[in-house]
Amino acid sequence: GCYTTSVIAGVSERTLIAVKPDGVQRRLVGQIVQRFEQRGFKLVGMKLLQAREDILSQHYHDLHKKPFYPNLLRYMSSGPVVAMVWEGHNVVRTSRLMVGNTNPAEAYPGTIRGDYSVHISRNVIHASDSVEGAQREIQLWFDRRELVDWDCCDHSSSYQV
Ligand code: IDP
Ligand code: MG
Fold this sequence. Notes:
Strands 2-3-1-4 form a 4-stranded antiparallel sheet. The chain is 37% helix and 15% strand. The protein is α+β, with helices and mostly antiparallel strands. The protein is globular and about 50 Å long. The structure holds inosine-5'-diphosphate and magnesium ion (MG). Residues 12-149 form the Nucleoside diphosphate kinase-like domain. This is Nucleoside diphosphate kinase. Its main location: other. Its EC number is 2.7.4.6.
């Protein structure tokens, strides 16, 4: 039957996933969404948007001194991105494994970057790297009212309840 996920310990972790402009241009959005659905995670927010510069500079604030930072911001604002919030047990760590190494040359086949990209400056997807980072990024990219609390009716197929 249906269960309220928030009452089940550890299940309500959330992460921010974004298909970057190259991924949107290459029409990879559907396949990327499919991977997270099939893994067993629950989509609780999703939108296509042209990212504003102030959001991008806050999102990548820890990289602002890196030599590639200007190119990174130009890349991320070169077209629309699809921002998503996914929920589930260990979703932050598991989605990093699904996404693969930052450098596609080091990303294993079977990961999103390992299957769809070749160069670090066009690596298709963003995933939060910690639970605290995810909370900060979700607040940055989404208004609370854009996130939907809903019960996944096959919840017990992915979780012991
Ligand atoms: P992550 O996306 O795997 O978390 P971060 O180190 O947080 O990797 O870097 C954020 C993004 O900045 C990367 O996904 C990539 O787009 C870009 N980036 C990181 N390192 C380099 C680099 O050495 N050259 C060019 N772009 C880079
Ligand atoms: Mg990062």
